[in-house]
Specification:
The protein is of the alpha+beta class. The protein has eight helices and seven strands, in the order H-H-H-H-H-E-H-H-H-E-E-E-E-E-E.
Length: 209
C-alpha cells in the first residue's frame, strides 16, 4: 500500500519532534547532573585583622641585629635555656654579666617557664656609670632589679598585654598593639624570642622596682 505524501510528511514531523524532545530531556538531565556534581564554592576566609604579631615570629626593629645563625640566632636560642641563650645574644652582654654577678644563671636555666624582659646594652648604658657599677657590686640590689624583669610564666604575643607579677613580687604593665609595645617606661625592641624555657622580650630601658 502506498503512503500519501501527507502521511509521510506527518510521520517525519512526528519523528523530528520526538527526537527533539529526547535531546532536550538529555540536556536537562546532563545539566542537572553537572549541577549536582559541581562542589560548592569554598568560602573565602576573612582576613585576620588582629593587631597582635604572629605567635611564632620575633618582631621589632632590633631583631635584625640578631645573628642569622650560630650563637645568638633565633634558631640556636630556641634550643637553649634562657640564661645560656642570652649569653650568645650580642644585644645582651651587660645583662648576662649582671645575671652572672647575681648568681641567677642556674635559677633562670632550670625554671620550667618564664617571660624575660631583657634590657639591651644600650639600656644599661643609660644608667650613670657610677650608679651602674654600684648596682653590679651589690648582689642583693642587683637580684631585686633583675628579678623585676622576670615573670614566672611564659607569655606569647597573644597574652603579653596587661599586668604581670614578677619573681620579685612586683608588677610590670605591658601595653600596645601590633609591633609597638611598652613595658612600663621601656619599649620592646625585639619581642617574642623563643628559648627552651622562656619567651624573651628585649627592651630599651632597665626597669627599676
Amino acid at each position: 500500500m502506498k503512503l500519501s505524501h501527507r502521511s509521510v510528511g506527518l510521520a517525519a514531523l512526528a519523528l523530528t519532534v520526538s527526537l527533539g524532545l529526547s535531546a532536550c530531556a538529555e540536556d536537562e538531565d546532563s545539566s542537572a547532573n553537572d549541577t549536582a556534581e559541581t562542589p560548592a564554592a569554598t568560602p573565602t576566609p576573612m582576613e585576620d585583622d588582629s593587631t597582635a604579631p604572629a605567635a611564632d615570629a620575633a618582631f621589632g626593629p632590633a631583631c635584625d641585629q640578631l645573628p642569622a645563625e650560630g650563637d645568638g640566632s633565633a634558631a640556636t636560642m630556641a634550643d637553649q635555656p634562657v640564661a645560656t641563650a642570652a649569653a650568645g645574644n650580642p644585644l645582651l652582654t651587660t645583662l648576662v654579666s649582671a645575671i652572672q654577678e647575681a648568681g641567677l644563671v642556674d635559677t633562670l636555666n632550670s625554671a620550667e617557664a618564664l617571660t624575660v624582659f631583657a634590657p639591651t646594652d644600650d639600656a644599661f648604658a643609660k644608667i650613670p656609670e657610677k650608679d651602674l657599677n654600684a648596682l653590679l657590686a651589690d648582689k642583693e640590689a642587683l637580684t631585686e632589679v633583675l628579678t623585676h624583669h622576670v615573670v614566672g610564666a611564659e607569655a606569647g604575643p597573644d597574652a603579653i598585654a596587661g599586668d604581670h607579677e614578677t619573681l620579685n613580687g612586683t608588677t610590670v604593665t605591658v601595653e600596645g598593639s601590633g609591633e609597638d609595645w611598652t613595658v612600663d617606661e621601656a619599649a620592646i625592641v625585639c619581642g617574642n624570642i623563643d628559648t627552651a624555657n622562656a619567651k624573651v622580650y628585649v627592651i630599651d630601658t632597665v626597669l627599676m622596682p
